[in-house]
Design brief:
- With 181 residues, this protein is mainly alpha-helical.
- Helix 1 packs antiparallel against helix 2 and helix 2 packs parallel to helix 4.
- The protein has one domain.
- It contains 8 helices and 2 strands.
- It starts with 7 loop residues before the first helix and ends in a 9-residue tail after the last helix.
- The protein has a two-stranded parallel ribbon with strand order 1-2.
- Helices cover 54% and strands 8% of the residues.
Length: 181
């Protein structure tokens, strides 16, 4: 989808997105809710926008897309022209719920259930009135691996973003979908 000669701006979006992703992974592994969900939302948003910079400028991204992950995702899938990306639609819907939860007053008048899952497994039953917010790290890791492939990101580039060994160790911890072998 993206040529190897990225614009400086799209590369900056990508680097920031990867940093959000690593921080969101750590927060998820530590059970830091709701911050982990919001960080993962920002990670996906920034990385998708890195791909959209092929067609839009950053002012258009801000004006037309804001933090609306479903809209960003829809446009990204159209640009990528890869029908297999549809398998992640449900993940995008789930992650998008975390967009506004960073505010202390959100949501009002609802019971709230938050879960951080490291691996995929059947979900527990929640009361019908509850609003369930879930981060499944395995699903996010798989999605990130696919995104890096679609965006033609060299695994060696990712290692340069993860300057310290601690960052690489964090990326590899409990990750069944690593980008590098």
């Amino acid at each position: 989808m993206m040529p190897s000669s990225r614009t400086r701006e799209s590369q900056q979006f990508l680097v920031i997105g990867i940093q959000y992703y690593l921080t969101g992974r750590q927060a998820t592994l530590c059970g830091l809710m709701p911050v982990s969900g919001n960080l993962v939302h920002h990670a996906i948003e920034m990385i998708l926008k890195a791909g959209l910079l092929e067609r839009f400028d950053s002012a258009e991204l801000k004006k037309d897309f804001h933090h609306r992950l479903p809209k960003i995702w829809s446009q990204f899938k159209n640009l990528a022209a890869d029908s297999s990306l549809g398998q992640f639609d449900e993940l995008i819907t789930e992650i998008h719920k975390w967009a506004e939860i960073r505010y202390p007053y959100f949501p009002r008048g609802k019971a709230l259930a938050m879960t951080a899952e490291i691996l995929r497994f059947p979900r527990t039953i929640v009361q019908p009135d509850d609003d369930l917010y879930t981060i499944n790290l395995e699903a996010v890791d798989e999605f990130m691996k696919v995104l890096m492939n679609v965006l033609q990101v060299n695994p060696e580039f990712l290692k340069t973003v993860m300057l310290r060994q601690e960052s690489r160790d964090l990326y590899e911890r409990e990750n069944r979908h690593k980008i590098w072998p």
